[in-house]
Amino acid sequence: MKTALFVYGTLRPGRAPRAVRAVVATLRPVATGRVRGRLYDLGEFPGAILDEAAPGLVHGDVVELSAVSPALAWFDEYEGFDASAPERSRFVRERCEAETAAGRISCWIWVLARAPARARVIESGEWHGGAD
Fold first, then answer.
1. Contact, 107 vs 96, CB < 8 A?
2. Which fold has domain 4-120?
């Protein structure tokens, strides 16, 4: 089984900063999708909180690791997730079900470990930053 990721920020194709563009290019696009929750503007990148009861959606892409993609651990490090100390991580990796035109796809997603105190919610659920 392929490893699917739901990406909504700097790991989205076409929105990756120069420093990670080569890695993002190794990801195989599967579908555009969405998950229920809130998307926050954190400046140079967004952060999401999953919430099935939220009225809004977070829009992104479902991608798969390819044979030339780095291991999942590379993405954990990029997102600042430490599985041995999730309480100290800004982002945590969780399973989610992304809704796509072809149906629901089980994916990994990196979400904020806690809601930010001062960040603006992106009401559209679509982050338009990225790609320098």
1. yes
2. Hypothetical upf0131 protein ytfp (3.10.490)
